[in-house]
Design a protein that fits this description.
Layout lengths: L6 E5 L7 H19 L9 H27 L2 E5 L2 E6 L5 E6 L3 E7 L2 H7 L3 E8 L6 E8 L1 H19 L8
Antiparallel strand pairs: 1-2, 2-3, 3-4, 5-6, 6-7
Length: 171
Amino acid sequence: MSENDNSIWSASPSQLINVSYFFITFVVIVVGIYLAFFPPDIIMRFHSLLVNLFFAGMLITVFFSCLRYFSTMLTVFTLTKSELIIKSGIFSRSGERLELYRIRDYSYHQPFFLRLLSGGKIGNIILITSDRTHPYVYIKGIAEGETILSSIRKQVELCRQEKGVREIDVE
């Protein structure tokens, strides 16, 4: 069964989850450029060393920001009638499949900065599962998260009815 045949929803996380990385990169670049062209008199002796250090810092922060950007862009969550498929990776791709009937509980979290920057439209979904390899599944930075959570909940119930599966808590 192909995931495209019965796909209900598919999306990638928002780049807003990377705002802190992008902000740090911006600050390092601005400080590096400032020190390169307008060095304070106190550090003139160490000017070339500081310029080289900030240039290295700029390269490192730009590299990690690009990694975060592409990692977020290339992560795809797909909800089908019977499973949640998570594909991720930049150079090597990996895919994980979670049978929907294994989802035990759901929660929705909207951090302050995501509410502020997205107007309340982007949030994080946390799924608690009975899967031993992935007891928690985090779907971060998803637009219309509450609507997606409702779709997941509905599909979980339909999948459980179809397969005749019931959740039993054993303590």
